[in-house]
Here is the input.
Amino acid sequence: MSKIKSWVVPEAGAAFELQELDAGPLGSDEVEVKVEYCGICHSDLSVKNNDWGNSQYPAVLGHEVIGRVVAVGDHAKGLKIGQRVGVGWTADSCMHCSECLSGHHQFCGESKATIIGHRGGFAETVRSHWAWAIPLPENLEPSTAGPLLCGGITVFQPFLAYGNVKSTSNVGVVGIGGLGHMAVKFAEAWGCEVTAFTSSPSKTEEAKALGADRVVSSRDSDAIAEMASTLDLLITTVNVPLDWAALINTLKPKGRMHVVGAVLEPIPVAAFQLIMGQREISGSPTGSPTDIAKMLEFAARHDIQPQTEDFPMSKINEAFEHLEAGKARYRIVLKADF
Here is the structure.
């Protein structure tokens, strides 16, 4: 039996505790990855506190993993010992349903989240199906690449999913935080004109430095109204209620508001706002293995790196306090120091 040192949440809301857990035998389709770095996502905090009601304890969180393959199962394909890979939100899918066979693995009814009912990356090693361990392009910095595996693909997905996002499109991003700052970078690199919506005046210059052409207060309905019918795509990354009617009105005819922030309250929509402009509202989770690989290649080609703060993994409780206090600029990455 192999023992793996892991940072464990014993129950909802509890602090992390360092424990040794029995890893059990490696599955034939699995790979084992020695963790070098693991980002902290707000979803880790939500699962830690059971905000969504589906957490399973004891829990080993962490789903923005960068590391090297140290073991491969008998049926694992395309990976070799020593190869640097990333493991994101999904650790496994069935590989035989219509969703998997059509390249939409993220919708598989049997997919397994890396941190729910599965041991994540706040540990010495993490395991996943070989297809979900994505090779990392050599020119991506491993110490900052982790957040691309979840937050990055989440905001990149609307660029892949809808073919009408052109280099001439006008794109808005609501919320300049862990997700939104990467969305601004992707949109700018895509060639779009970018409008950042933020509730923090202090982020105005930061948003422009990230690639935004203009910055609008997300709490100022009058300022939002001045943007009426100007945006082809509006990506909302926030998890708090806003003036949704005003934001929808920023869309051009045939424009789309795409929701990736897990706002728990219903979003009110007036039918005529959609009908008269043939506007659309959509949402998406992360992406398939091929989508993630495309996103990583795009990031490598355009030198897109998340803006990160670094903590040793041994300071994991302090890092989560920093995140929960809203102080992160903009993602936190833990360096394994077992």
Observations:
- The mean pLDDT is 97.
- The two ends are 19 Å apart (CA to CA).
- Residues 289-301 form the longest helix (13 residues).
- The longest strand covers residues 30-40.
